[in-house]
Write a structure and sequence with these properties.
The chain is α+β, with helices and mostly antiparallel strands and 492 residues long. It contains 13 helices and 17 strands. Strand 16 (457-459) and strand 17 form a beta hairpin. The chain is elongated and about 80 Å long.
């Protein structure tokens, strides 16, 4: 199967969602409507949208039905009408997304006027406006709804969010206006393309987890735009526009796709209802900077690119990525951060940084395969580069093996002894400085390829493109790195 999926199919209950036929004749305001369960579904995402021209046609038709069922006595103000149209369009887009891509077709949202979850959201989402429009859509027979309940703190029952889902009438209008699963897209707004977060909370020892735990991010920081930040934003907007014009898919057989979806749905970190199809429409990328100061916002730490769906899958599955139905190749900067530390100091990095003589000798003496413990050495060394404090308390991933006859402290000692020229950087949190350099290199490579008219996908320090562009990608990767460090990287 090449491209994103098989050929586009319209919203047709007989083909894609047989359960929908059971909803015929059910009242739109009936909280017991088939297919909607209180508190179940996928949360409303303001970044979800519909492609043109079907997005505008679908929205316009729904507005006609909406206005007929909810006539206004006064004419709309220009700004209010714009927000109203956008609100309805986004509600529709999320309903279509849930219908095609999730097993539960309901969309979760909050109705309250002072919901903390919407405090940093666009104004058209706040002040209870979503609930008002959902109610009106339900009154017009376009959605089914379930109103959530906020339980008191002492209740044994959990609070539930409100939800809505498309009715057959909404599905009919979507089909008539040309909406298919290929109509769904993601558009990250320009003010969210450059994100700055404050420092993470300090690590705390968790007796439940048996080690140090730490939040993944600090608090988000608002900031005023500058010429540099506007340039970053414009660059990312150009890349995202270009990505949306490409067919970035997975060349998986139906059985392979089903297996992958099963694995994704078993992931405890999955957000929202189980997947029916992978959401390969999420191609927009953005930058995340770290350790910012709200009183003096600076963009000097982190800056990595995030967002594209290919960043959240494993290396083995990335081999199945196709771009415009063409096979791809992935090239990365080998041992990126250790080599960057050497090169930043003007030193050569000979050999393989994650190979330690002491561990290699142990592998031979215990007759295990060479490099059996390399993944552990790689993980531990990068912990030493990225953390502040004592790396021996970091939680080891379950899927990598540690040499059983050594303590963590002993292996740290081996790493320090074999990398004396950069030992002063360990435990300083220098990783965020390296991420900034890495992200600038990545942005230079991707934007250069975009300007030349061929797509490159980044996964931090590795890059994916079609096989016929391999040589050009290697040239861009070498040039960007040499320009920064005056030393040649190792590509693999």
């Amino acid at each position: 199967m090449m491209g994103q999926y098989a050929d586009a199919q319209p919203l047709a209950p007989t083909k894609l969602r047989p359960v929908v036929s059971e909803l015929r004749g059910v009242r739109a305001d009936n909280n017991l409507a088939v297919g909607i369960t209180a508190g179940s579904g996928t949360f409303f995402d303001e970044q979800i949208d519909l492609k043109e021209p079907e997005g505008a046609a679908f929205t316009a038709k729904i507005l006609e039905v909406y206005e007929k069922a909810n006539p206004r006595k006064r004419a709309w103000k220009t700004e209010d009408l714009s927000n109203h149209t956008l609100r309805i369009r986004k509600l529709l887009a999320n309903a279509v997304r849930a219908y095609f891509f999730r097993d539960q077709r309901s969309v979760l949202y909050f109705r309250g006027a002072d919901v903390a979850a919407y405090r940093e959201k666009p104004s058209w989402m706040r002040h209870g406006s979503l609930g008002e429009v959902v109610d009106a859509l339900a009154g017009a027979g376009l959605v089914q709804t379930v109103t959530g309940k906020k339980m008191p703190w002492y209740s044994k029952r959990s609070s539930t969010a409100s939800s809505y889902a498309a009715t057959n009438e909404l599905e009919r209008i979507a089909t008539e206006t040309g909406v298919t699963r290929h109509s769904v897209e993601q558009r990250i707004s320009s003010d969210r393309l450059i994100q700055l977060f404050g420092p993470k909370l300090r690590q705390e020892f968790s007796w439940m987890k048996g080690g140090l735990t730490q939040a993944s991010k600090g608090e988000i920081i608002t900031y005023e735009p500058t010429a540099q930040r506007q340039q970053w934003t414009a660059t990312l907007e150009a890349i995202n526009d270009f990505y949306r014009q490409q067919d970035i898919g997975l060349g998986l057989s139906p059985d392979e796709l089903a297996l992958w979806l099963a694995e994704r749905n078993d992931d405890p970190e999955r957000i929202g209802a189980p997947y029916r199809l992978p959401e390969l429409f999420k191609t927009d990328i953005y930058r995340v900077f770290n350790n910012g100061d709200a009183d003096n916002p600076r963009f000097e730490k982190g800056g990595r690119l995030f967002g594209g769906w290919w960043m959240s899958i494993g290396e083995e599955l990335r081999r199945a990525i196709t771009i415009n139905a063409q096979p791809t190749v992935e090239i990365d900067y080998a041992e990126c951060h250790p080599r960057m530390l050497y090169h930043r100091a003007g030193l050569r990095c000979d050999g393989e940084p994650y190979t330690l003589p002491e561990i290699a000798a142990y592998e031979r003496s215990t007759e295990v395969a060479p490099h059996t413990y390399r993944p552990y050495i790689k993980w531990l060394m990068n912990v030493m580069i990225n953390c502040r404090g004592r790396p021996e308390f970091a939680l080891k991933p379950d899927d990598i093996a540690m040499p059983p006859d050594f303590t963590v402290r002993q292996i740290i000692g081996f790493i320090e002894a074999n990398h004396k020229p950069i030992v002063r950087d360990f435990g300083t949190g220098v990783g965020l400085d390296l991420m900034l350099i890495e992200s600038e290199i990545a942005l230079a490579i991707v934007s250069a390829a975009t300007a030349e008219g061929w797509p490159v996908l980044s996964v931090h320090d590795s890059f994916i493109t079609t096989v016929n562009q391999r040589d050009r990608l290697e040239a861009l990767m070498n040039d960007a790195y040499i320009q920064r460090f005056r030393q040649r990287p190792l590509l693999k």
